[in-house]
Write a structure and sequence with these properties.
There is one protein chain. This protein is mainly alpha-helical. It folds into two domains: about 240 residues, Orthogonal Bundle (Fic-like fold); about 80 residues, Arc Repressor Mutant, subunit A (Orthogonal Bundle). It is built from 15 helices and five strands. A three-stranded antiparallel β-sheet has the order 3-5-4. Helix 7 packs across helix 11.
């Protein structure tokens, strides 16, 4: 990769756009430190994938991983919704936070839809467009061609194109670049490790910036989609947005460094460190979830005849750790007095805590669980 050249600045009248070189070509690794990181990342990813096979009811917990990914990926773009806010119904969200809340909900829907679509669609421009359409439906970017590649020039940073920090390739070349990216994703002509492949795809996608809005969120979402489609992960349980958000300056600096200094190796190293740290943290989180499950099961066994209904509530809380009296009634079919008695029992056992402080419309959170994702 020493001979790698990212692309060229091309005059487009009053400005210069960055036209990246295509990536569907043969690649060779010549850095031992990079190979060492790749080995560590593969090992940690394999360990995490093993958990997806042996943890009972893992789908219950995936929804919280998706929720965390949605809030962190959206936070990189400037939204201020946290996990607790994202769990609320829209009528319970403060007016000034509703736009952010809706963007996070769209991200959750877009990711879930994309994972489901992988059963009938390959990793492709079509899948990317359909995912983007859901991401922008009814939110601030709804007028920026949801589900369509851009037909005009965009830019990053700056109040106008004249003081932009980065100008992606001219719009007329977007389809060709995305076609090249898609071919590279599925190429079997020459071997290139999948983790480096998706790292390069993510870089190239962010450089192409094929949409007028939502590129960052879609680009990060592609990482999980690729790993699932290639069978590297059996379940969508690795999300790098938390790592990117915590290291936001390095994330952008390393992407920029590829374009300005042709330093692809440093981007690969940063990406692999993200995979290693995120996989390790995810394993720790799963261990903590299993421990919490056992502790809660012991607690609810003290409720005697009410333990079966309590277990129904707890199962629900591990999927969506927030509820109110009406949800408890729906889950258990109990009378309202029995519902409130069960809620009182769960509060006394420190399983749920009331969050509003109100006398009516009380909302209860499974905070020990949500804290594992904060």
């Amino acid at each position: 990769m020493k001979s790698f050249k990212a692309g060229n600045q091309i005059h487009q009248g009053t400005y210069k756009s960055f036209q990246p070189n295509r990536i569907n070509q043969e690649w060779k690794i010549d850095d031992m430190e990079l190979l060492n990181l790749l080995s560590q990342a593969d090992r940690q990813l394999g360990r995490l994938d093993m958990y997806s096979e042996y943890i009972p009811n893992i789908d219950l917990f995936i929804s919280m991983h998706v929720l965390k990914e949605a809030t962190q990926s959206s936070k990189i773009e400037g939204t201020k919704t946290n996990i607790e806010d994202a769990l609320l119904d829209i009528e319970d969200v403060n007016d000034e936070k509703r736009d952010d809340w809706e963007e996070v909900q769209n991200y959750i829907e877009a990711l879930n839809s994309a994972i489901a679509n992988l059963e009938k669609l390959p990793f492709s421009s079509r899948l990317i467009k359909e995912t983007h359409k859901i991401l922008l439906q009814g939110v601030r970017g709804k007028h920026k061609l949801p589900g369509e590649f851009r037909s005009s020039q965009n830019w990053i940073g700056g109040a106008s194109i004249n003081d932009a920090t980065f100008i992606p390739p001219i719009h007329s070349s977007v389809n060709d670049y995305m076609g090249d990216l898609e071919k590279f994703a599925h190429s079997i002509e020459s071997y290139f490790p999948d983790l480096l492949k998706i790292a390069l795809i993510h870089y190239q996608f962010e450089t192409i910036h094929p949409f007028l809005d939502g590129n960052g969120r879609v680009g990060r979402l592609l990482i999980t989609l690729y790993l699932v489609e290639k069978g590297i992960l059996k379940k969508p349980i690795l999300y790098l947005s938390d790592f990117f958000e915590k290291n936001r300056s390095l994330y952008y600096d390393n992407l920029t460094r590829v374009r300005e200094k042709n330093d692809l190796t440093q981007w690969f190293k940063f990406f692999l460190v993200g995979v290693i740290e995120t996989a390790k943290n995810s394993v720790t989180t799963f261990d903590s979830i299993l421990k919490l499950q056992k502790e809660v099961e012991v607690k609810i066994q003290t409720l005697g005849s009410r333990s079966n209904n309590a277990q129904l509530i707890v199962n629900y809380l591990f999927q969506r750790p927030i509820l109110d009296a009406s949800k408890v009634k729906d889950l258990t079919n109990l009378s309202l007095p029995s519902v409130y008695k069960l809620i009182d029992d769960l509060e006394k056992l420190d399983i749920i805590k009331e969050t509003t402080g109100a006398k009516r419309g009380k909302i209860y959170m499974f905070r020990e669980y949500t804290n594992l994702f904060n």
